[in-house]
């Protein structure tokens, strides 16, 4: 019998893990070390190249090149792509790792965003609390906490809500769970939309939202030459670095948890919930942990998005946002951190600038007048159909998912076996 190497531990090139165990021939020497960490190094190199492009190349380039970059790769759109990566990584823990179909993930985005609006703005002007915050001039009243403190607090706040939402719903399975999460994803944004007057108390400012939020202070980092003391709405390149650091943190947490006991329990539930329970995996507690960890990433992303748009706008938290996030996870490769990252960047960029610029190019070339951005869901629908037909595992599939989805159907296997039995020896 031939002994084969187990490639389903998540350390293969298509697995989504960059933290290999260090064992085996593939880990020997610098070549093996680089191969195991190719994706994290690639993410770092890409971030450095984008930062250098906007920091030094674009300001000193020709007007034509500046117009091209502003049209196709607008820096605000690139920053938003990185924030979508944070959300997609959080949803990947719920859907890709634990196999729990969540159609209402936008609820955690809303909770994180409004938490930032509550504690980083003059919204609650009945009080005057400032703990390392950086309010705008003339808006000192309200609650003003440091951006760096709000990030973990928002993560904990959304993790708590993930447990509260998950506790009564995670006993359901499959389609029933998806319908319930869809309901929560619709209820929470609607509460914020209509919570301007709750018996005289203004919780969310209704359809007007909460704006502006406090600026980001850099503390000791401002001593570095050319680094500002605080980041306002137009410090896009510095915010790009911060958003990349937040995304890298979410990647690191996802990869490390996946290799631990909790991550293996999630994968066991995803593959076969009954078998996992028979092997001693506590189903309810493990599912709640997936919801809590995934929701905390949504809270962190919500704070980052509030800083990105300088406020919290209730129109952002639509059902379509949850569907877009799910498409990012499915198209990128469920369970694969790097596949989900790639899917999030591609879809977010297409939504923001790619489709509009492509439409302008086509219309100017052919003399047509087609509104391409209005057809984005038609495009994503076609992509999803084609992906499910020809590449169900996604662009960068996880090793386990690739092996399961590429297995021949039972009928094919039986047919091959019957042919072999009928052949003369």
From TrEMBL:
<feature type="transmembrane region" description="Helical">
    <location>
        <begin position="325"/>
        <end position="350"/>
    </location>
</feature>
<feature type="transmembrane region" description="Helical">
    <location>
        <begin position="106"/>
        <end position="124"/>
    </location>
</feature>
<feature type="region of interest" description="Disordered">
    <location>
        <begin position="1"/>
        <end position="24"/>
    </location>
</feature>
<feature type="transmembrane region" description="Helical">
    <location>
        <begin position="145"/>
        <end position="167"/>
    </location>
</feature>
<feature type="transmembrane region" description="Helical">
    <location>
        <begin position="77"/>
        <end position="100"/>
    </location>
</feature>
<feature type="transmembrane region" description="Helical">
    <location>
        <begin position="236"/>
        <end position="255"/>
    </location>
</feature>
<feature type="transmembrane region" description="Helical">
    <location>
        <begin position="370"/>
        <end position="390"/>
    </location>
</feature>
<dbReference type="Pfam" id="PF02653">
    <property type="entry name" value="BPD_transp_2"/>
</dbReference>
<feature type="compositionally biased region" description="Gly residues">
    <location>
        <begin position="11"/>
        <end position="23"/>
    </location>
</feature>
<feature type="transmembrane region" description="Helical">
    <location>
        <begin position="38"/>
        <end position="57"/>
    </location>
</feature>
<dbReference type="InterPro" id="IPR043428">
    <property type="entry name" value="LivM-like"/>
</dbReference>
<keyword id="KW-0472">Membrane</keyword>
<protein>
    <submittedName>
        <fullName>Branched-chain amino acid ABC transporter permease</fullName>
    </submittedName>
</protein>
<keyword id="KW-1003">Cell membrane</keyword>
<feature type="compositionally biased region" description="Low complexity">
    <location>
        <begin position="1"/>
        <end position="10"/>
    </location>
</feature>
<keyword id="KW-1133">Transmembrane helix</keyword>
<dbReference type="InterPro" id="IPR001851">
    <property type="entry name" value="ABC_transp_permease"/>
</dbReference>
<keyword id="KW-0812">Transmembrane</keyword>
